[in-house]
Amino acid sequence: MALPDAIADGGPDARRGGLLDDVGDWGPVRTSVGSFRLTPVRLGSDLPLLSRWMNDPAVSAFWELAGPPSVTAGHVRAQLGGDGRGMPCLGTLNGEPMSYWEIYRADLDPLARHCSVLPHDMGIHLLIGPARDRGRHLGGVLIRAVADLILDRRPDCMRVLAEPDLRNVPSIAAFLSAGFRFSAEVELPDKRAALMVRDRSLRHQL
């Protein structure tokens, strides 16, 4: 069945009645590198940028979404048309889109079949889009900002999780610098991952 236009485009009806509140209302937040905001993806206008990022070899090595725009569109549309347990977002820094994020309920995600997940645990995936923004230590700053947003906005969430590919050493380093701890190696269907955890109880210590 075709999705209503507002849902297919990631419009205001895309998350009505879902399992996440409106992530678009979470920001902006001040960071040491500027003003950062998460904005839910609008596929109609954001697809060209997202597809270009996904075709960057440094990104496609881990996201595996290289190809025509329809490949990226299929991945994003599956989340926009889901039951609200996840939200794909653009991350803007000082008004410029420079990252892609997926904020999701980890306890309701397939991840929970492969490792110990607590009720209301939240998860994040991300990529830094422009090559010029990589290697500048932005990842750790922005990951910390997003994890803090989650913990501030979702009081039932005790942990924020991530599962970067074990081969993605820069990503793991960014999570460590953002106050996450390495919890375990996890065998997932598409990768061997490092399970990274940011604990609410330790957020002001790490």
TrEMBL record:
InterPro entries: Acyl_CoA_acyltransferase (IPR016181), Acyltransferase_MbtK/IucB-like (IPR019432). SUPFAM superfamilies: Acyl-CoA N-acyltransferases (Nat). Pathway: Siderophore biosynthesis; mycobactin biosynthesis. Residues 39-86 form the Acyltransferase MbtK/IucB-like conserved domain. Pfam families: Acetyltransf_8 (PF13523). Acyltransferase required for the direct transfer of medium- to long-chain fatty acyl moieties from a carrier protein (MbtL) on to the epsilon-amino group of lysine residue in the mycobactin core. This is Lysine N-acyltransferase MbtK.
